[in-house]
Design brief:
With 173 residues, this protein is an alpha+beta fold. It is built from 4 helices and 10 strands; from the N terminus they run H-H-E-E-E-E-E-E-E-E-H-E-E-H. The longest helix is centred in the middle third of the chain and has 24 residues.
Protein backbone atom coordinates (compact mmCIF):
# COMPACT_ATOMS: atom_id res chain seq x y z
CA UNK A 1 0.00 0.00 0.00
CA UNK A 2 2.88 2.35 0.83
CA UNK A 3 4.34 1.77 -2.65
CA UNK A 4 1.08 2.71 -4.38
CA UNK A 5 0.68 5.89 -2.32
CA UNK A 6 4.33 6.85 -2.90
CA UNK A 7 3.99 6.19 -6.65
CA UNK A 8 0.80 8.26 -6.85
CA UNK A 9 2.42 11.09 -4.88
CA UNK A 10 5.44 11.10 -7.23
CA UNK A 11 3.17 11.16 -10.29
CA UNK A 12 1.20 14.11 -8.88
CA UNK A 13 4.44 15.95 -8.06
CA UNK A 14 5.71 15.50 -11.62
CA UNK A 15 2.43 16.81 -13.04
CA UNK A 16 2.38 19.74 -10.63
CA UNK A 17 5.95 20.76 -11.48
CA UNK A 18 5.52 20.56 -15.23
CA UNK A 19 3.89 22.88 -17.73
CA UNK A 20 1.76 21.40 -20.45
CA UNK A 21 3.37 23.25 -23.38
CA UNK A 22 6.78 22.22 -22.05
CA UNK A 23 5.70 18.57 -22.00
CA UNK A 24 4.12 18.64 -25.46
CA UNK A 25 6.45 20.86 -27.52
CA UNK A 26 9.52 21.80 -25.47
CA UNK A 27 11.48 25.03 -25.49
CA UNK A 28 13.10 24.59 -28.92
CA UNK A 29 11.56 24.48 -32.40
CA UNK A 30 12.89 23.02 -35.64
CA UNK A 31 12.79 25.55 -38.48
CA UNK A 32 13.45 24.43 -42.07
CA UNK A 33 15.42 26.66 -44.46
CA UNK A 34 15.46 26.34 -48.26
CA UNK A 35 16.57 28.61 -51.07
CA UNK A 36 16.45 28.75 -54.83
CA UNK A 37 19.23 28.34 -55.83
CA UNK A 38 20.32 26.01 -53.05
CA UNK A 39 23.63 26.05 -51.15
CA UNK A 40 23.14 29.64 -50.03
CA UNK A 41 24.68 30.55 -46.70
CA UNK A 42 22.34 31.49 -43.88
CA UNK A 43 23.08 33.25 -40.62
CA UNK A 44 20.52 33.50 -37.84
CA UNK A 45 20.80 36.53 -35.53
CA UNK A 46 18.96 36.87 -32.22
CA UNK A 47 17.34 40.11 -31.03
CA UNK A 48 20.66 41.36 -29.62
CA UNK A 49 22.42 40.90 -32.99
CA UNK A 50 24.43 37.81 -32.00
CA UNK A 51 24.82 34.98 -34.53
CA UNK A 52 23.09 31.96 -32.97
CA UNK A 53 23.31 29.61 -35.98
CA UNK A 54 24.81 29.43 -39.45
CA UNK A 55 24.57 26.82 -42.19
CA UNK A 56 23.89 26.29 -45.90
CA UNK A 57 20.53 25.62 -47.49
CA UNK A 58 18.74 23.29 -47.42
CA UNK A 59 18.94 22.74 -43.66
CA UNK A 60 16.92 22.48 -40.47
CA UNK A 61 17.96 24.34 -37.33
CA UNK A 62 16.77 24.03 -33.74
CA UNK A 63 16.02 27.51 -32.36
CA UNK A 64 14.94 28.57 -28.88
CA UNK A 65 11.33 29.80 -28.80
CA UNK A 66 11.79 31.95 -25.69
CA UNK A 67 14.11 34.87 -25.02
CA UNK A 68 13.53 35.18 -21.28
CA UNK A 69 10.78 34.99 -18.73
CA UNK A 70 7.45 35.66 -20.52
CA UNK A 71 9.38 36.91 -23.58
CA UNK A 72 9.21 35.25 -26.99
CA UNK A 73 12.25 35.02 -29.22
CA UNK A 74 12.68 36.83 -32.53
CA UNK A 75 15.33 36.21 -35.13
CA UNK A 76 16.69 37.88 -38.27
CA UNK A 77 17.80 35.40 -40.93
CA UNK A 78 20.25 36.56 -43.61
CA UNK A 79 20.44 34.46 -46.79
CA UNK A 80 23.39 35.11 -49.14
CA UNK A 81 25.00 33.57 -52.19
CA UNK A 82 27.64 35.10 -54.48
CA UNK A 83 26.02 36.57 -57.61
CA UNK A 84 22.64 37.00 -55.87
CA UNK A 85 21.05 39.75 -53.81
CA UNK A 86 21.14 39.30 -50.07
CA UNK A 87 17.74 38.50 -48.52
CA UNK A 88 16.54 38.91 -44.93
CA UNK A 89 13.64 37.10 -43.26
CA UNK A 90 12.24 37.75 -39.79
CA UNK A 91 11.14 34.94 -37.48
CA UNK A 92 8.68 36.07 -34.81
CA UNK A 93 7.21 34.26 -31.84
CA UNK A 94 3.52 34.12 -30.99
CA UNK A 95 1.68 32.62 -28.05
CA UNK A 96 0.98 28.89 -28.38
CA UNK A 97 -2.41 29.43 -26.75
CA UNK A 98 -3.75 25.90 -27.12
CA UNK A 99 -1.17 24.02 -25.10
CA UNK A 100 -0.19 26.90 -22.85
CA UNK A 101 -3.68 27.99 -21.73
CA UNK A 102 -5.93 24.94 -22.15
CA UNK A 103 -3.23 22.35 -21.43
CA UNK A 104 -2.20 23.99 -18.17
CA UNK A 105 -5.85 24.24 -17.15
CA UNK A 106 -5.98 20.42 -17.07
CA UNK A 107 -2.36 19.35 -16.41
CA UNK A 108 0.18 22.00 -15.37
CA UNK A 109 -1.91 24.36 -13.30
CA UNK A 110 -0.55 27.65 -11.96
CA UNK A 111 3.01 26.33 -11.84
CA UNK A 112 2.81 25.54 -15.56
CA UNK A 113 1.21 28.90 -16.39
CA UNK A 114 3.45 31.11 -14.29
CA UNK A 115 6.78 29.30 -13.99
CA UNK A 116 7.59 26.30 -16.18
CA UNK A 117 6.22 27.29 -19.61
CA UNK A 118 7.29 30.98 -19.39
CA UNK A 119 10.84 29.99 -18.31
CA UNK A 120 11.28 27.18 -20.86
CA UNK A 121 9.88 29.25 -23.76
CA UNK A 122 7.47 26.43 -24.61
CA UNK A 123 4.52 28.83 -24.49
CA UNK A 124 5.73 30.37 -27.80
CA UNK A 125 5.72 29.23 -31.44
CA UNK A 126 8.14 30.58 -34.05
CA UNK A 127 6.69 31.68 -37.35
CA UNK A 128 7.26 30.90 -40.15
CA UNK A 129 8.18 27.27 -39.43
CA UNK A 130 9.58 26.91 -42.95
CA UNK A 131 11.66 29.63 -44.61
CA UNK A 132 11.87 29.34 -48.38
CA UNK A 133 13.60 32.15 -50.26
CA UNK A 134 14.03 32.76 -53.96
CA UNK A 135 17.25 34.69 -54.50
CA UNK A 136 17.35 37.33 -57.25
CA UNK A 137 20.43 37.65 -59.44
CA UNK A 138 22.53 40.75 -58.88
CA UNK A 139 22.27 43.48 -61.50
CA UNK A 140 25.94 43.06 -62.35
CA UNK A 141 28.22 40.26 -61.26
CA UNK A 142 31.34 41.67 -62.94
CA UNK A 143 32.50 43.05 -59.60
CA UNK A 144 31.12 41.14 -56.56
CA UNK A 145 29.50 43.49 -54.08
CA UNK A 146 29.07 46.30 -56.63
CA UNK A 147 25.99 47.17 -58.63
CA UNK A 148 25.46 48.66 -62.06
CA UNK A 149 23.92 52.11 -61.69
CA UNK A 150 22.54 54.25 -64.48
CA UNK A 151 22.66 58.02 -63.98
CA UNK A 152 22.15 61.10 -66.11
CA UNK A 153 25.31 62.64 -67.54
CA UNK A 154 24.33 65.93 -65.92
CA UNK A 155 24.53 64.21 -62.49
CA UNK A 156 28.11 62.99 -63.03
CA UNK A 157 30.80 65.34 -61.63
CA UNK A 158 32.98 66.93 -64.37
CA UNK A 159 36.20 65.43 -62.95
CA UNK A 160 34.74 61.91 -63.32
CA UNK A 161 33.47 62.36 -66.88
CA UNK A 162 36.95 61.92 -68.33
CA UNK A 163 37.00 58.37 -66.88
CA UNK A 164 33.79 57.40 -68.64
CA UNK A 165 33.61 55.33 -71.82
CA UNK A 166 30.68 54.99 -74.23
CA UNK A 167 28.69 51.76 -74.18
CA UNK A 168 27.05 50.36 -77.31
CA UNK A 169 23.49 49.18 -76.77
CA UNK A 170 22.18 46.49 -79.09
CA UNK A 171 18.49 45.89 -79.48
CA UNK A 172 16.94 42.93 -81.23
CA UNK A 173 13.87 43.48 -83.38
Amino acid sequence: MKTIVLGAACALLVLALSGCATIVSGGDQKVDFQSDPSEASIKVYDSSGMVVASSQTPTSLLLKKGAGYFKGASYRVVVEKPGYKRTEVLLQSSLNAGWYIAGNLFIGGLIGWLIVDPMSGAMWTLSPERVSTELSAEVSSMHPGKELKIVLLADVPREVRSLMAPVAIRTSR
